[in-house]
Hints:
The protein is an alpha/beta fold. The protein has one domain (11-489): Glycosidases (TIM Barrel, Alpha-Beta Barrel), CATH 3.20.20.80. Helix content is 39%, strand content 12%. The structure holds 6-O-phosphono-beta-D-glucopyranose. 6-O-phosphono-beta-D-glucopyranose (BG6) is lined by residues 17, 20, 177-178, 252, 324, 386, 390, 433, 440-443, 448. It comes from Faecalitalea cylindroides. Keywords: Glycosidase, Hydrolase.
Amino acid sequence: MVNNKFPDNFLWGGATAAYQCEGAWDEDGKGFAITDLLTAGTRRNPRKLTLEVDPGVYYPAKKGIDHYHRYKEDIKLFAEMGFKVYRMSVSWARIYPNGDDEKPNQKGLDFYRDVFKECHKYGIEPLVSIMHHDTPVALAIKQDGWLSKKTIDAYVKYAKTLFTEYKGLVRYWITFNEINMTMNYFGDVYGAGILSNGTRIIDINNVSDDAMSKEKQNKRFAALHNQFLASALAVKAGHEIDPNNQIGCMIASDAHYPYSCNPVNILAAQNSMRKLWYCGDVQVRGEYSYFTKRYLEEKGVTLNVTEEDKKILKEGKVDFYSLSYYTSGTDCLDQEVDTDSGNFNLGAANPYLKKSDWGWAFDPDGLRWVLNEIYGRYNVPIFIAENGLGAIDEVSDDGKIHDDYRIHYLREHTKAMKQAIDDGVDLFGYTWWGPIDLVSASTGEMKKRYGFIYVDLDNEGKGTLQRVRKDSFYYYKKLIETNGSCVFEED
Ligand code: BG6
């Protein structure tokens, strides 16, 4: 019998990442992460990454939203909304400043211990991403980041440190955030170590696979393979250190549709979905899928996968599949159409869907569709680790933020989740991306706001940092209180 309630114990909450909110980039012994060296940009003007810090330039990770110093206030606000779970990431460079130091930085360990304890004080379960984009700079310079097998060793040591230190405080883990992003421009910046050349501009308007050199493609896929190995070794170690640990993958899982029923578009969309399956198959099933040989050949990529690697992947399968879902894209090969589908390259714009301020299509049905596709393929529990709306918020004359567009987005995606659960999908939790405004990953802006909590800070890092509850804050509180059912009452 279908009802309006979500399953008992459904984990409602929100998600952040260290470099997008903590700030304190050089405090208490923290080393530099790649993400600390990204300048701010806009949708049309890409962020830049330079190895030299320019004192005249604002780097958004420098300040974040000052969560490092205000985490108690922020977690208290999360608790007020009724969070059951807080997804956050640990900054590797806070624990091992150079990525591979002999001993961990005690102050870094203490900081996260305090954060986890603060969560538990309110009955909030921490869900921890071990790596969310922020490879320590030292590893990128010294050994070309994820192109080196030595980075796998460093990561596994770091992961074991976390599992050991926080045993009993944390039991839900994600090894790598959106690991499939290593296939695109994120791979250059956050993973592949294409930094030895010094300066690189992240060109978000030129990320198509065709535009890339074979050399770059080879680096991205080699780096991704090393991340798979690191993830599998961490999963194995995490289970050995504490059998209660539940460890997941995290894959950006935006839906891809054919633009029309022309079979060429159907095949193209199938190929786009392989960006998800490529990673999910390795991390959930423990092996590369049948299609990867041709998929890589067509990109001019030669991948070295040894027998030992295959064994490692088999032994390090994840317990659950987590995903981010924001939007959908379409594939169109047979006609010229509008390709403005946001700052990620999701192909042709879908004429049936409305877009956000940043061009991302609003598509809750796509969430139901993709959850069914994932569950049908893997049959493991699923967790929505990110979903949300980046929008321009205005503070009204009454001092409040009336973000009915965000409430609408949340309501419709919650309905879609419920539909998927009623379809039979084993979905056990949901964390809204950026429950408090934070720095945008793709553009580095503060102006692109996701939060239920407004933070008084602008793109240049100016503002009081004061936290203000938006209308959506009260809506999410009610949604959690009613275990999801209020989204149906308002129909
Ligand atoms: C995901 C990332 O890609 O999307 C987050 O895991 C990111 O780090 C989020 O912030 C939203 O993207 P953006 O570019 O709007 O911040």
